[in-house]
Amino acid sequence: MPEKTFDALEAFILANSTDSDTEAVELLSLSARRGVGKIITARNYVGLITMADGTVIEILPKIAGGDTTVSDTKRIFLEMLKTLKDVSFKDFNVSQLHTERLNLLEIFIKMFLDEVSILTKQGLKAAYTPVEENERFYKGKLLASQNIKHNLVSREKFFVRYDDFSINRPENRLIKSTLGFLLKATGDAGNRRTAARLLSFFDGVDFSKSVGGDFLKCFVDRSMTHYDKALSWCRVFLRGNSFTAFAGSEIALALLFPLEKVFESFVAAKFRRHISDGINLRTQDARYSLFDSPTRAFALRPDLVLEFDGKTIVMDTKWKLLSDNARNHGISQSDMYQMYAYSKKYGSDCIVLLYPHSDNVSRSEFRYASDDNVNVDVSFIDLRNSDSSIANLIAKVC
Questions:
Q1: What's phi and psi for 84, nearest 5 deg?
Q2: What are 62-109's pLDDT values in tens digits?
Q3: pTM, whole model, 2 decimals?
Q4: Most Cβ neighbours (<10 Å): which of 56, 92, 146, 277?
Q5: pLDDT tens string 105-114
Q6: Residue 346: helix, strand or coil by DSSP?
């Protein structure tokens, strides 16, 4: 990495240590090593950072398995993103995204371009928009004060307000502005050709002069539902909205996602797919708090609660690669306190901590047991074969 780019990334880390809700220690860590110098290490976020100089930095999750390629890692990561509530990631086909040759930025750009392609085939929506102009012909309503101001001498014109039916509406301006931005940002010839072709459909549309203002003007009704996904991508690219906002002029675009949330969402989606009839699944269950008097305080919110035949199974997902060489395999004490509280409040028959598979753990599962009958099972999800892992876990606990 060029020194100038490294310095810009360092400034980005320091800016986000105080200027946003995301602490630098959670995002990227800055350290020093003797004989090497400063080192930047990715922490709990994955995604991409595009620097102002055009450098694209990919941050991918570490998928355990010696044969896991970068392309496979990107494919798994994108499959995990599909489970997020953000509509942008819901329906794309990972097998058609060329993960072997495209970086994450180009993949995200391609997703947006595919959405806009679908939109143009369905037809761009037109709308009546208010226009205030000094016209040669009288139409609409004369604005008396403005007319006197502009036409006291040139009386052949009329300053009027009228409604114009055109495709130059806020939604289309935002999409055109995003296409223009991505035409400059993309380094992929295919994406560049597609963006240029799609821009031709927006010839009668202005570029947005106020992105925030146009987002506020977007209509929400049934006739515009086919715009939802494209506009969601516009928010991502024009505002850098992924899960969090980051500060720093050195960064052109930061699309970063907390691994804990991605893993949690992915596991929950897999459970929904594999649980059988008769099992009630609750996600992010908020029925209980640690204390109930005088008011509910310190809410408990386990990721997954399974209920069937009078039994309750409580599960929590944690993104961390455990190791036999670490104390307690690397499981934090606070996580175990949390599991203990779940057991007591839910009267649960089984408490399970779920981690991604780690090559550094010799056992596929193990249990911690207390003398007051609290048992916490530790299990692993192999992200390379997640469906089989989830199905086997459900068969075991249910």
A1: -70, 155
A2: 888 667 788 888 889 988 988 887 656 666 666 666 666 778 888 889
A3: 0.77
A4: 92
A5: 888 899 899 9
A6: helix
Three-class SS state of 98 = coil
Decide: 63 and 71 in contact? Cβ < 8 Å.
no
CATH ID of 275-397, from 2.130.10, 3.40.1350, 3.10.50, 2.40.37: 3.40.1350
Q: Taken in order 76, 78, 84, 87, is the CA torsion positive or negative?
A: negative
List % helix, strand, coil for the chain (3-state, nearest 5): 40, 25, 35
The dihedral over CA atoms of 202, 203, 209, 211, expressed in degrees to the nearest 10, equals 0
Domain ranges, ordered by start, for the chain: 1-78+243-258, 87-126+167-241, 127-166, 275-397
Q: Which residues touch 113 (CB under 8 Å, ≥6 apart)? A: 182, 191, 194, 195, 198
Residue bearing the bigger pLDDT, 7 or 284: 284
Residue 334 tokens, joined: 């606070």
Specify whether the CB–CB gap between 244 and 22 falls below 8 A: yes
* Residue showing tokens 């009839």: 277
Radius of gyration of the chain (CA): 27
